[in-house]
Amino acid sequence: MQRLVYLRRPSAAAALQERLVGVGFLRAACEDDVHGSRLVTWVRTSAEERVVRSILGEPDQRASERVDEDALNTWKVKVTVGTWILGPGVAAPRGAKTVVTMPVGAGFGLGDHPTTLLTARLLAEHGCAGARVLDLGCGSGVLAALAGKLGAAQIDAVDLDSDAVAHTRKTLKANKVEGKAWTSNLLKRVPGTYDLVCANLVGDLLVEFFGGGTLHRVLTPDGTAFLSGISDAKRPAVLKALAADGWQVTRRLKDDLWTGLAIQRRS
Predict the structure, then answer these.
(1) By the 8 A CB rule, do 232 and 14 touch?
(2) Fewer Cβ neighbours under 10 Å: the N or C end of the chain?
(3) What is the pLDDT of residues 110-137, one digit of tens each?
(4) Which of 37-46, 47-56, 106-115 reaches the highest mean pLDDT?
(5) Strand, helix or coil at 32?
(6) What whole-number distance in Å separates Cα of residue 118 and Cα of residue 140?
(7) Is the model's pLDDT at 179 over the cut of 60?
(8) Domain boundary among 48, 69, 90
(9) Domain for residue 146, yes or no?
């Protein structure tokens, strides 16, 4: 696996990270140190490297390096107290009650990206026992798997990318969670209604998402949606769009350059 590093101003690094997330590439992180800000990405294949280079250009050759993929599979991250997302083969920490284990080769994110964790925290804090849950833009399926571990009665997951759907099915199976996953451009092929909707998308897609009342169609009257992938730059536009569509923010979480929201219909 290659570790590609791009030295940028903080605002530029965040904007480029959002572009990568927008094309489904979640293995990217903004880092800050005494030398300034940088965007770091990890690519497994030459095809992934071409995608990253087409968006970001040439990386900094002095800071980029080849890394041991086995080491990347040994991470673990806490979602909330007692709730963890683990790399492949990692033992559950002491006191863990709810654990999602990512399978090897999760190409659409390992579950440790800030936008994923914000959505996961909102979902875990709210709870979903007995709920019908939709994971919109499912990526590797970590949120769908977490919903199952938290007791959801029905789990559906959709993504525009067929590879993401395949990864989601793999993650559900690895965690012994019953659920369905299929391709859909946002909600175009989603006929049902849900108590909870997880939408870890990007700012521009979320603004589009609130046009025409599409979320109202799939969310029950007292349902809750969890939104993430909202950068600092796009947050005002997202808040304006959801207010215009009749939604109110009931919970807000912040992680570095990203915001996660829980929303319900405005009473």
Answers:
(1) yes
(2) C
(3) 666 788 889 999 999 999 999 999 999 9
(4) 47-56
(5) strand
(6) 15
(7) yes
(8) 69
(9) yes
Q: Is residue 98 part of a domain?
A: no
Phi and psi of 164, rounded to 5°?
Answer: -65, -40
Tokens 């086995």 map to which residue?
Answer: 70
Measure the CA angle with vertex 59, ends 139 and 48; round to 5°.
30
Q: What is the pLDDT of residue 128?
A: 95
Neighbours of 93 (CB within 10 A): 12
- The pTM for the full model equals 0.77
Strand positions, DSSP E, the chain: 2-8, 28-33, 36-43, 65-66, 76-80, 83-86, 98-101, 132-136, 154-159, 180-183, 194-200, 219-231, 247-255, 258-265
Expressed as residue numbers, the domain containing 37 is 2-69
| Collapsed DSSP state (helix, strand, coil) of residue 214 | helix
- Residue-wise pLDDT for 147-177, tens only, equals 999 999 999 999 988 888 998 999 999 999 9
If pLDDT is split at 50, 70 and 90, which confidence band does 5 have? confident
**Which positions ≥6 away from 245 have C-beta within 8 Å?**
210, 211, 213, 215, 216
Q: Residue 255: inside a domain, yes or no?
A: yes
> Do 167 and 216 share a domain, yes or no?
yes
Could you count the other beta carbons within 10 Å of the beta carbon of residue 142? 32
Helix, strand, coil % over all residues of the chain, rounded to 5: 35, 35, 35
Give CA–CA dist 44/154, Å, rounded. Answer: 33
Q: Choose among 123, 125, 143: nearest CA to 135.
A: 143
Q: What pLDDT is attached to residue 67? A: 58
Task: List CB contacts of 122: < 8 A, sequence separation 6 or more.
Answer: 226, 228, 251, 253, 260, 261, 262
Please compute Rg for the chain using Cα positions: 18
Nearest one of 186, 199, 195 to 260, comparing CA atoms: 199
